[in-house]
């Protein structure tokens, strides 16, 4: 498996990264997890517009799904005619949400995307084995564990403190965990994690490597890293757009 961080900005795009988007590749299959604001542009650095085989969205906040509406336009209006539907796995209501984003009726959206409603549990997408768990966020949100050839990635999506996240990430080689808040910020419970809380979840799950993501552009990156340091003692780094993870990738520079 090769994982490319396309977008890791939290809540809104930043100057150096779109909002959430991750490209997972194995055996020639390309799975996109989340497609937040601005992600479709940068995604084209790593995959052709029509080389995406499936999409999975964690939840329907704009910073995780807004460019699904844009991508519908891309698949609807190519010079050589509309493209066949590809699978889109998402929470209940994803088709309605994409229709709103793409200014299209639901049947038109369903002609380009075949929607599959997420539920907790395991299922296959191409060569990947996915396990979905509900996270602790104000709208229905799924975190994912993705396995291929014995290598395991866990992704928190957006979540407050969550036992389900610890289960999902247990013994994963890499945990991509959101760290939206810094200590001392007005962090509402059941919404997002601080960097310190993210590190505590990683430590409890016993992950091989922690990459903090969903980094809000106005937060100090050095402070984010420093607040996680010491709570999780394994390899620790911050996500950047373009970062590559996977069994063949060297550990990213962190501390
Ligand atoms: Zn959210």
Principal-axis shape equals: globular
Spatial strand sequence of the major β-sheet: 6-5-4-3-2-1-14
Proportion of strand residues: 25-35%
User: Which molecules are bound in this entry?
Assistant: zinc ion
How would you sum up this structure, described in words?
With 255 residues, the protein is α/β, with parallel strands linked by helices. Helix content is 24%, strand content 27%. It is built from 7 helices and 14 strands. The protein has a 7-stranded mixed sheet with strand order 6-5-4-3-2-1-14.
Topology (SSEs and partners):
Layout: E1 2-7, E2 21-26, E3 29-35, H1 39-43, E4 54-56, H2 62-76, E5 86-90, H3 94-102, H4 106-110, E6 113-117, E7 121-125, E8 128-134, E9 142-148, E10 151-155, H5 163-169, E11 174-178, H6 195-205, E12 210-213, H7 221-228, E13 236-238, E14 244-245
Parallel strand pairs: 3-4, 4-5, 5-6, 10-11, 11-12, 12-13
Antiparallel strand pairs: 1-2, 1-14, 2-3, 7-8, 8-9, 9-10
The protein binds zinc ion (ZN).
